[in-house]
Write a structure and sequence with these properties.
Order of helices and strands: HHHEHEHEHEHEHHEHEEHEEH
Shape: globular
Mean pLDDT: 96
Radius of gyration: 19 Å
CATH topology of the largest domain: Rossmann fold
Number of strands: 10
Largest sheet: 5 strands, parallel
Strand order of the largest sheet: 2-1-3-4-5
Helix content: 40-55%
Strand content: 15-25%
Number of helices: 12
CATH superfamily of the largest domain: Glucose-6-phosphate isomerase like protein, domain 1
Length: about 350
Amino acid sequence: MQYHSHNEIHNQDTSLKQTFDYVLANAKEIKNFFAPRGDIVFVGCGSSYWMSLSAHKTMKIKTGRRTYAVKAGDVVLCPEEFTGLYDNPVFFCPSRSGKTGEVLDAVDILKAAYPGSRVFVIDIYPGSALGRKADMSINIGWANEESVCQTRSFSNLYLASIAIAAILGGDENFIAECKKYLGAAPALYINHEKAIRRLIETSTIASVVALGGGLQYGVVIEGAYIVIEMAEFASNYYQLLEYRHGPIVTATPESLVFICSGISDEHEKKIALETKAVGAKVCAVTNGPVDWADYVFSLDGSHCKEILAMHFVFVMQSFAHHFSVARGKNPDSPGNLVPFILY
């Protein structure tokens, strides 16, 4: 049986290219909107929050501005914690549906707390309620899914956010690197999907862990989440070095530990070897060959942390899809999961 999610994951390069070109075509308008100096505060929930946890750090690095990522649910539950924190903020809201109740309420709370603040929205559902609250919005409807879980929509929201950071920071090298990766992605997808199939076919899997850190960490968390959601399989995520401070005791020969590389070769290798010492299998997304992983998903180049993170989430999405099928689940509509929560 061919599932919608298979196409949405393994052919997402088409939508990613469209999103990237669209953001670049609107670069002037985006620059003008963000021109007034002030803080940039990402607001999201679920996958959009995890994406924001990574993207806001890229925004900080590229622009030199103060940036934050906040959970919409925290704003709704504890609004008093978010007053007096930000200077002339833009609230940056990435969302697939633009309908999630927590985000809509959080935006209202934050706008009331910061008179004169502005709202920037990237959404995927056309004509969304969140988009109508925006002072500027961009819609990337081609990134939507027919299946329930966020896969290509997550990747597209992430790419749009980091591309905007590069535009605001004038980082032409980063733009060129994104173009290079998008050109290589179709072949990488084919080769790495084959490797993922073999991994699942030849492994007894009792636990899955995703490891990473820094600006990759939010995307790494999403990597674990998509396995939880799509494969209906309990998975965990940890900051790279945090893993050795307790959680590693749960590793067994039936554990798969995925590492998003690109932060520190020395520390990644140390954690991998400690993990392998207890019999667990290490799977790594890397720029090139490494001798410390059992399964290597190499990009065969020298890519920045954001590109490695983007490919890491593809690997986890592909793994989640095929593992779901192997477990007799429906990757298009797992359990009682719904695409968004009104309240």
